Amino acid sequence: MLGWMNLMAQDFELAGVRYLNYPTTKANDTDSSEFSIQEFGGFFNIPTILNKDSTSIMLNGLGYAQLRINTLDNPVPVDGKNIILHSVSYRFSFIRKFNDKWSFIGMLEPTLASDFKSNLSSDDLVVQSLAMVSAKINSNFLIGGGLAYTTRFGDPRIIPVVPIKYTSKKHRINALLPTKLVYAYQVNSKVDIGFKAIVNGANFNITGYSNDLAEINKINYTRGNIGPVLYYKPKKIFSIELSGGLSTNRTFRLVDINNKSYNNNASTEAFFNIGIVVKPSTYK
After folding, report:
1. Claim: this prediction has a pTM higher than 0.85
2. Beta strand 35-49 with 171-177: parallel, antiparallel or unpaired?
3. What is the pLDDT of residues 131-182, one digit of tens each?
4. Radius of gyration of the chain, Cα coordinates, nearest whole angstrom
5. Three-class SS state of 6
6. How many helices (H) and strands (E) does the chain have?
7. 119-123, 157-161, 251-255 — which is least confidently predicted?
């Protein structure tokens, strides 16, 4: 859940950890039962410069994410247990700068997403990917286009992506539409404040869960988070991110062994996020 959205031109993150907390959630707006959700993730990328003029860069990275659904009233039919879902990914990325204007990014991300309660199989694996080009219109503005194969909307699907980057003395826009949009205003050399909207999700293979009709073997989880964000940079390469707001369009889509789906649309509720990332010293 923490992969290719961090790559845009040469604006990438080398390592980081993030924690999100959704303290109160209902299975739907009319349900009185409540449960909570926590997400935790970490990653690192190792860059390798492939030529003398630094126009070709390769990155190899690993990522881990955990989704924990707490209390008895969770939307997945299991008696008396919390649900812990895991995602482990290897990420290979290639960035090629053709000239001062045009760049290319390609990425392959084999991902295991499961509760790991049974032996691994092909159902636990999905190979996410990204290919896009970007054009630097001027010193402040970059835009591009491409395609991604991703689970960010739950089940794996191909989506078009549009990278946009704008920077000025005080303002910064960083987007990878339709999954991410960030606006930040520089208060001083160490503090930025702004606004962030992000769509995230994953497709987990599970075992041992059932409802009244069938055995459930997959969970597609999606949500969109929107709200204010604050970045604090105590050092040039470190950034601490604090954000919060509303989490909406939250769906738990359960798929049984016969490929029949059962949707639970969770209520729109507040969330809180904290993250620490390490960026290249050339990042602005």
Report:
1. no
2. unpaired
3. 999 999 998 999 999 999 998 887 889 999 999 999 998 999 999 999 999 9
4. 20
5. helix
6. 0, 15
7. 119-123
> 141-170 burial, b if ≥16 CB within 10 A, otherwise e?
ebebebebbbbbbbeeeeeebebbbbbeee
Question: What is the rounded average pLDDT of the residues 46-70?
Answer: 88
d(CA 108, CA 93): 7
88 phi/psi in degrees, rounded to 5: -125, 130
User: Cα(first)–Cα(last) distance of the chain, in Å?
Assistant: 24
The two most distant CA atoms of the chain are separated, in Å, by 62
Beta strands 191-210 and 215-232 are: antiparallel
The continuous run of DSSP H or E covering 169 comes out as none
Contact 148, 4 (CB under 8 A): yes
Tell me which residue has tokens 């069938």.
214
Write out the two tokens for 181: 């949009």
Sign of the dihedral defined by the CA atoms of residues 16, 144, 174, 142, in that order: positive
As given in the structure block, the two tokens for residue 22 are 């959704």
Among left, alpha and beta (phi > 0; psi -120 to 50; other), residue 208 is left
Query: Residue 235 carries which side chain, given as an amino acid letter?
Result: K
